[in-house]
């Protein structure tokens, strides 16, 4: 789905949908209260958010995996596999599976880390964690499982975008919230705020997180070759993510000139017709190159990959000591 424009403010459409948000709220409360979580034999770190749409969880999950590996641990990532057809538990193999099989984000994570951190998909998170442990995992990174109460978490991390925050602070469908801010924060052990290097944390968010351990994270491009390709070039950009403008802003921050763009719904599965339209729009805009996100690129048919570039990204800790302390307490390492 596309992130609705009315989620950004408390207008008429948002207000009319408030009764449905009440039912959503009741369902989220009952699910948390009526489910008895299962504890597995290794620590579980959950990386999630309170809102629908992208907030930057995936690069943070990969960076946490890298930090844990440097501590001598063997983390495995367990994801729901949203958008994929397979139920799991299934260990993602880029040579065997497509985004249609396992979902775009799990496939992207498996490709991004060259499979140094195994990635699993499982609609049932407990079964996914158990399969990973049987395969040698000594710590589980639960990707986007904050609202799933079936698996006991040892550390729960909330990821929040500094500019987007919680938008109109209303629950789905009136707003982007998956649960109330108050209830979500009660279960959070730490908050990671994604921001630009020269930004301070939004004062409104800082006030909301006043009682929590908070650190900031910067999402940066990981490939200098692709960065040089962008400078002063006319770029046609397209993206199927929750907030496409974040991607376009990143390109512009790298001195690209956006001559045209096309938004698709989040987790969109591209067809050849879609890509032919993108190529036509780029040609009409006299673009020097076409760029998309790393998550979108894994869904591009092979026949089009030589015509489209992507921008790999990674998370950079603004306070690495905060991260090391958080992980060391959980793993018993120093």
UniProtKB/TrEMBL annotation:
Q: Name one GO cellular component term.
A: plasma membrane
The family database entries (InterPro entries) matched by this protein are listed as: LpxK, P-loop_NTPase
Keyword check for Transcription regulation, yes or no. no
Q: Name one GO biological process term.
A: lipid A biosynthetic process
Pathway participation? Glycolipid biosynthesis; lipid IV(A) biosynthesis; lipid IV(A) from (3R)-3-hydroxytetradecanoyl-[acyl-carrier-protein] and UDP-N-acetyl-alpha-D-glucosamine: step 6/6
Keyword Transferase set for record: yes
Named from the GO MF annotations, one term is: ATP binding
EC nos: 2.7.1.130
| Residues that hold ATP according to the record | 51-58
Which keywords appear in this protein's UniProt record, sorted alphabetically? Answer: ATP-binding, Kinase, Lipid A biosynthesis, Lipid biosynthesis, Lipid metabolism, Nucleotide-binding, Transferase
Reaction catalysis annotation: a lipid A disaccharide + ATP = a lipid IVA + ADP + H(+)
Q: Which family does it belong to?
A: Belongs to the LpxK family.
The UniProt function text for this chain reads: Transfers the gamma-phosphate of ATP to the 4'-position of a tetraacyldisaccharide 1-phosphate intermediate (termed DS-1-P) to form tetraacyldisaccharide 1,4'-bis-phosphate (lipid IVA).
State what protein this is by name: Tetraacyldisaccharide 4'-kinase
Recorded source organism is Kiloniella spongiae
